[in-house]
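tokens incoming
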């Protein structure tokens, strides 16, 4: 009996250590009030995105929930208005798998909203599910869609400066290895999905890094944020139904609640004094070093140029001209399973190696950021 009690005590002690060191998230205590400011949060109908939007609404911001499902998005907006007491929470349709939908969202937003102070790219997928597309759906939703949306909304971010862009990434970026010859190839099978997910998270980190270089001196800063291990819909969305009842109790014990997962994205969006750390990667409300592949400036710039092509941006198209551009299909955004014939294919984007750009000529590099210690969150 004594041995049993000792074993239980040791297990409880070990769990407490794991909980307070790995599971429990430090709270963000950034700006007290956001009245007069506007924020866009993608994928805000549930999980981390919904908790992020709730905190922004509680602080008085006008919050746009950019979600694919109108039914779930409007229901989430209603819930957040009720819970926050802030009536400035609205839904706008956005399907990141469709470039036409991204352009339609940007056109609608720019025509109706005079400000954009915070843009949080939270939406993402971890698997293609049963969907089969002629492109890399994981890269499209997790990186290319957010890349295009940021590009289209940059004029409004600049006029509202100081403003911020937060890209929700993951520690999975450490396993990513971008292959620019196969960047947009379709993903088939769970092994390819795991690789493609890690690659898309690496793309998030490199995107934030290059965006910081592109926006230096504009008053717009950007950050990649790791929410930590979170018990959200993303975790169980593609798990077989028979396995979910077994995993739910385990997830509840060892994973953060969505509210905890929202703390680092909120920190990057709100914390004062981190502007010199624009382009960096944050976890647990602190800046964190990344592996060499995630701080490769040449790869970051190469990804930027490849992303412009995959997003359908022409060589001479800049953010200012995009503000007035119209989407090819301003109607109802297409679903992820619909074809996108207007969008470039991998074969069009990646010619033979003999005709590829000589990346050794790229000389622009991200400046060395000051290694200040952010305030404790």
């Amino acid at each position: 009996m004594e041995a049993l009690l000792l074993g239980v005590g040791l297990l409880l002690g070990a769990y407490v250590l794991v909980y307070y060191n790995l599971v429990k998230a430090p709270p963000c205590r950034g700006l007290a009030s956001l009245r007069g400011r506007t924020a866009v949060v993608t994928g805000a109908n549930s999980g981390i995105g919904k908790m992020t939007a709730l905190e922004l609404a509680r602080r008085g911001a006008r919050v746009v929930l950019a979600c694919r499902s109108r039914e779930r998005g409007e229901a989430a907006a209603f819930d957040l208005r009720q819970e926050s007491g802030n009536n400035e929470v609205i839904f706008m349709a956005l399907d990141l798998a469709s470039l036409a939908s991204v352009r339609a969202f940007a056109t609608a937003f720019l025509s109706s909203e005079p400000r954009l102070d915070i843009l949080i790219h939270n939406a993402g997928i971890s698997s293609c599910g049963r969907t089969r597309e002629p492109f890399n759906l994981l890269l499209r939703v997790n990186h290319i869609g957010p890349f295009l949306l940021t590009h289209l909304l940059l004029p409004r971010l600049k006029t509202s400066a100081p403003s911020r862009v937060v890209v929700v990434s993951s520690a999975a970026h450490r396993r990513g290895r971008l292959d620019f010859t196969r960047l947009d190839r379709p993903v088939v099978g769970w092994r390819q999905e795991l690789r493609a997910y890690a690659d898309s998270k690496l793309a998030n980190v490199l995107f934030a890094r290059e965006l910081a270089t592109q926006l230096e001196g504009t008053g717009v800063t950007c950050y990649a944020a790791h929410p930590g291990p979170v018990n959200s819909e993303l975790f169980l969305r593609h798990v077989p139904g028979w396995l979910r009842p077994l995993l739910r109790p385990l997830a509840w014990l060892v994973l953060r609640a969505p509210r905890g997962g929202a703390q680092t994205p909120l920190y990057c969006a709100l914390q004062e004094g981190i502007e010199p750390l624009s382009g960096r990667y944050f976890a647990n409300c602190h800046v964190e070093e990344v592996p060499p592949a995630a701080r490769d400036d040449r790869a970051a710039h190469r990804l930027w140029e490849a992303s412009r092509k995959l997003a359908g941006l022409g060589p001479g198209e800049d953010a200012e001209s995009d503000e007035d551009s119209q989407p090819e299909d301003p109607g109802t955004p297409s679903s992820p399973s619909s074809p996108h014939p207007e969008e470039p294919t991998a074969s069009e984007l990646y010619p033979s190696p003999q005709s590829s750009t000589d990346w050794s000529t790229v000389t622009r590099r991200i400046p060395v950021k000051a290694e200040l210690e952010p305030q404790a969150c």
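note: The chain has one domain: 29-311.
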